[in-house]
Amino acid sequence: MCTLEKRGDLFILTLTGESKQDQEHRLNPALISSIRSALAEAKSQAVNGSALVTVAEGRFFSNGFDLVHAQAVGVKAGSFEAARSELHRMVDLFRGVVSDLLSLPMPTIAAVTGHAAAAGLILAMSHDYVTMTSSKGVMYMSELDIGMTLPDYFMALIQGKLGSPGARRELVLRAAKVRAEAAKGMGIVDSAHDSAEEAVDAAVRMAEELGKRGWNGEAYAGIRKSLFPEVCRLLGVKNQVVLPSKF
């Protein structure tokens, strides 16, 4: 699950987990719903100058969709098609998380202090900025290795975020396990740090610095949406004109 802490105008969203499996932060319907609830709460309390930092407990930022959960649904139903249908449902539910982050009226920073794989990497990339620790963890689009294609909105986000065709090819057509320094060179990560603590501290400092600008949150969200029109189109995220309250 996750928690949301408010420190002044700064929000800290933490992916939590009591068991070893939970600390992989695999994206199942319950965790997706929890994240969306936290983002909705942050949005409802946002003011000009707010910012959000997302962190995760344990060795994983997120290990992608919860395939074990999908398999369990299939076993219970006695049908492989039921497992496939549940995976499709998670892919569809996760669209809401990406939509929420792209629409959030404040700067967002993901502090990646462990592995970020598949949908977990997309979760990180849905933030405006990403910090990462060099001491442990990789970024990894595992779909090719497990024999499945990527959802259309995954590819649209990757194309919008990574300007280099070579970087996109490395990520999705080689299924490379990318460490922090290489991820920085590819444009996935904004800064690499020696420890998890330093990566989180850097994300918080960035959030505080951005928050000091006091930007209009709705204008910020609108400009973000216009920066990534294709993924917003696929997600059905609408933009609106925001004008200054005073000229």
From TrEMBL:
<dbReference type="InterPro" id="IPR001753">
    <property type="entry name" value="Enoyl-CoA_hydra/iso"/>
</dbReference>
<dbReference type="GO" id="GO:0006635">
    <property type="term" value="P:fatty acid beta-oxidation"/>
</dbReference>
<comment type="pathway">
    <text>Lipid metabolism; fatty acid beta-oxidation.</text>
</comment>
<dbReference type="Pfam" id="PF00378">
    <property type="entry name" value="ECH_1"/>
</dbReference>
<dbReference type="InterPro" id="IPR029045">
    <property type="entry name" value="ClpP/crotonase-like_dom_sf"/>
</dbReference>
<protein>
    <recommendedName>
        <fullName>Delta(3)-Delta(2)-enoyl-CoA isomerase</fullName>
        <ecNumber>5.3.3.8</ecNumber>
    </recommendedName>
</protein>
<keyword id="KW-0443">Lipid metabolism</keyword>
<comment type="similarity">
    <text>Belongs to the enoyl-CoA hydratase/isomerase family.</text>
</comment>
<dbReference type="GO" id="GO:0004165">
    <property type="term" value="F:delta(3)-delta(2)-enoyl-CoA isomerase activity"/>
</dbReference>
